[in-house]
Amino acid sequence: MIVAENVEKRFGDALVLKRVNLRVEPGEVVTILGASGSGKSTLIRCINGLETLSGGKITVDGHDVSTKAGLVAARRASATVFQLFNLYPHMTALRNITLAPIEVLKLPKAEAEARARALLDKVGLGAHADAYPQQLSGGQRQRVGICRALAMQPRYLLLDEVTSALDPEMTGDVLRILAELAADGTTMVFVTHEIEFARHISSRIVFLEQGELIVDLPTAQFFAEDGGLAVRRIRQFLSKMKKD
C-alpha cells in the first residue's frame, strides 16, 4: 500500500503540495487529474523519492521514503515511467531493460534477458531488442520505458504523463498496453490528461487543485451527472478538456 499523510512540498516560497492525503491499495488504478501546475507530477516524484518532502510522510508498503533504507525498499517495490522516456541513448532496447535487474536485483544476465525479451514481445517490440533509442519512434521508446519498469517486477507502477510527448497514433498504442496491465491487476498511480482513458481504467479519480487534493472518488461517482461532480471546478476542468 502507498500512503501519503499530510504531504507538503515547497520550491522556495511556493507551496506546491498542501497537506495531501492519499492511500493506494494493491490492485487499484488511481488516476490523478488536475490543471497544469496543480502538483500532479510533483506528487509522483515525492512518492519515488525524486523530490524530498517539506512536510508529512509517504510510505510504500510501510517503508518511509524519507529515510535511506526506506527509500531503497520503496524503489524495489515500485517503478516509474516518465513522460520523456529517459532511455540511455548508447544502449540497445534490450540493454536498457536489463540494466537494473542485473545491477540492482542481481539477476543472472540470461534470466534478465529472457525476461526483457518476453516483455518486448508482449508490447509488440520483439524484433527491436537490438535497436537503439534513436532508431525507434516515440511510441516505441515509451513502450521500451514501460518494459524497463516492468522488468523490475514492481508491485506499484507510477506513470507520469507517459503520452504527453506522443502523437495520437502512438498514444493509442501506449494506452492499449496500459489498459492490458490494468486488466491484469497491476497497481498503478497514473498522472494524465487522457480523460476518457482515465474513465476506462481507473478505480478512483483524485483531483488536485493548486496543490490541494480536493476530490478522491470512485471513477463512476466522479464522472456521474447526478451530483457526482458537485464541485464546480471539476466540471469546468472536464469541460475544458473536452474542448481541447
TrEMBL record:
Domain ABC transporter as annotated: residue spans: 2-235
GO molecular function: ABC-type amino acid transporter activity; ATP binding; ATP hydrolysis activity
Any GO CC annotation of this UniProt entry: plasma membrane
One family name in Pfam for this protein: ABC_tran
Cell compartment(s), UniProt: Cell membrane
Top-rank taxon, per record: Bacteria
SUPFAM superfamilies associated with the record: P-loop containing nucleoside triphosphate hydrolases (SSF52540)
Hydrolase listed as a keyword: no
Keywords: Amino-acid transport, ATP-binding, Cell membrane, Membrane, Nucleotide-binding, Transport
Stored InterPro entries: AAA+_ATPase, ABC_ATPase_HisP-typ, ABC_transporter-like_ATP-bd, ABC_transporter-like_CS, MetN_ABC_transporter-like, P-loop_NTPase
Membrane topology classification: Peripheral membrane protein
Signal sequence segment: none
Gene3D superfamilies associated with the record: P-loop containing nucleotide triphosphate hydrolases
Protein family according to the UniProt entry: Belongs to the ABC transporter superfamily.
Official protein name in the record: ABC transporter
Protein's organism: Pleomorphomonas diazotrophica
